[in-house]
Structures are given as structure tokens and as C-alpha cells.
């Protein structure tokens, strides 16, 4: 993989989540991908990106280090595959896309609902995950 930029459309578009996982907010700008849908996932507070009508909106993160890519890859659910995605402005970014076996809801994920109901707890979960991840990495 040549990590050029990461298209984030769900929980990774929140600065607090990024800080909990990689200790910083990378350079980012709003972007969109046509032909994709940000779907709600059953029994999860975060979404999945699936092909569909409409436009998926999010941010393009640039300047991620190799270590930051490793952390984010380890963090992401096995329901995702890292896929290169065409953006509406002609650029491309990598995105965590639901794989073929993933179950998705018929309705779209709500960024506003996530922020209001789940963000604080989710950030705490991310920080806990990162502590465990770093302990495992040190244990080698």
C-alpha cells in the first residue's frame, strides 16, 4: 500500500477520536465521494462505507506517518477493507470500506446523532484501545 491520503467519513472525522488514537489531528479538508453511502451498521455506533446512490461526505487526511497508518489499520474493525476511492474533485484517497460479507442497515449513519449520543464514550473506548495496543506492541 502506498499511503497517500485517508478518506474518513465516520468516527475518524472527529478530532477527539484522532487525538485518542494517534495523538494529533492530521492535515485535513472536506471532500466527498460519489457513488458511496455512509451506512449505519447493526449494533455498532460507527458506520460503514458501501457502494450506493448519493454522495459520502467526510475529510481527506494527509501527512499520516507509517506508524499512524499501522495504528489506524489495527484499530479498524475486520468488517472493513482498505480501498482506493475516487473523490468528486478528481483526487483519490484510501477508505475503510465494508467488505462483501458485512451487514449494513437500510438507513444512513447520522454524524449528528453520533456526536450527541456516543462521541464522549467512544473517545474513551479509543483511548483504552490504544493503551492496550501499545502494551501489546511493547510486549512484542
Automatic annotation (TrEMBL):
CDD domains, per the entry: GGCT_like (cd06661)
Signal peptide: none
Domain Gamma-glutamylcyclotransferase AIG2-like span(s) in chain numbering: 6-110
Entry keyword set: Transferase
Domain of life of the source: Bacteria
InterPro entries referenced in this protein's UniProt entry, alphabetically: AIG2-like, AIG2-like_dom, GGCT-like, GGCT-like_sf
Record keyword Transferase present: yes
Gene3D superfamilies in alphabetical order: Gamma-glutamyl cyclotransferase-like
Name of the protein in question: Putative gamma-glutamylcyclotransferase
Lineage: Bacteria, Bacillati, Actinomycetota, Actinomycetes, Streptosporangiales
